[in-house]
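Example 3.2
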Amino acid sequence: MARSQTPPLRGEAYRLAEESYRLQAAHDLAGALSLVDAALAKSKEHPQLLALKRDLLYAIGSLPEADALNEDLLAKAPGDAKLRLFRIYLRQRQGRLAEALEDATQLEGDSGISPGDRRQTRLVLADLFQAQGRHTEALKVLMPHSGEAELGVQARRAFLLLADGHHASACQAFQDALQLSPDADQRRTLLQGLCDAARKTNQADLELRALEDLRRLNPQDRHAALELAYAYVGRHRDAEALDHFSAGLDDQSLPGTWLDAAYAAKRLGKNSEAVRYFTRGMDARRASGQTSPEFDYGLRREVETLSRSWGLASGSFYRQSILLPGVASRDKLLQQGLEAYWQPEFLAQNGRMVQVFAQVFENLYSGNSATTGGPTLQGVVGVRAKPFSSENVVFTAEKLVALGRLSLNDWMFRAAYSADAGLDLRPWERDWNYWRLFTEGAAFAKTGQYVHQLEVRAGHAWRMKTSDGRDMLAPHLVLAGDFDNRVNPRYAGGFGIGASLRHWFREDRHHAPASWLELTLQARAQLGSADRGKGLFLTLTGWF
């Protein structure tokens, strides 16, 4: 009720009311309420003081008392639009939406209220329709004011358009509302709505700009940081995504968020950072009770692979060509090879890698009276590269260094391709199918020799009932062949059966088994005219 319609306050009551207004503006509601009670003691039932007390009670949540005071005021001025409007607010806040809607509909249809009161009634009427999910009716109520450059109207329209499925129009309405100088909280709410609308209309750039604005609005908001991180992931901008994952992750973050950050780091080749995130993700999964033996083992394998920067390999080969000059699988020859390699992290990126290695090989036994021992000692230094993430193609350049009088000084260049399924241990399964294809060609710079080999295996693996469950028996069928332009016949092939026994070891709660020893025995029948394709073939290999 306007102050001009009531007798003016005077003296002490006036002073106390003014001080109460000051405390109200300073958000000292309890102090303001105490002063207005003191003023009412000086000027009982004064409408201005009663209205002030009602407003303070409403602000502190004493809704029944505020409602009673408003009804007292309405009894004295039943046609007062502002008092009727305040009753609607009270009903709305108390959850009495049907009563509030009835009152608002009546007030909006009253031809005697002012344009300002009618506009305010329409706004609250739109809110009431929205609360009941009647978005189309709410938009219709706001239609007369849709052209107004006023934040309250445009913000309501934006959210109503979004809720009513008019996503493209909502995008524009949110952008219009953001131009009307909202405060920080309003801007945050509008930007969140704009993100939603842009996402639903596939306006990726608009969504990203809104998320970036949200992030700038509150740099400490971890939720905004993570939302922006996922937006960057969706646009294959992993570097920016990782920055925001780093800012947004904390001890309360979900396991999947840690893992998504890990994969972003992995794609960037930041292996140490990826390992840290994978580890946190695994710990968070355990803490939350999430378990999946297959998925969890895959995470451990990721950590083991990404953690590896060097390694050792050992191989003993009987009648198995390892593409060294002067060695053909037709010879009944046992060779031993050792390798040490280094894999720099900055060159190991998301499945791509470069390794620098040194090898040494020696003939240990010959059934054909060929030379063995020191004279056959062959040194090798080289570099190999796997340039593709998804395909296991490896190129190698190596210098053969003569360490024995029968070994060579030469350059050898290789290209290899392999594909497989089921070769890794599966602790969650008793047995499974597996297969492997491997092919490699090598050319020697000085001698002009070119050699090539191929082996295809297909079989079934059983996890043996040993104490640690880390032994695997894998019988298989094998198809193998080789080519050597320095021997006759040049082509040789064989088909047969074989079995591999592999023991896995060196693991912990975050790392899958990093090392293995494997013994493979194969018996092949000859394919073609070269007898070197038949017989028994044996390998003993170790990976550390």
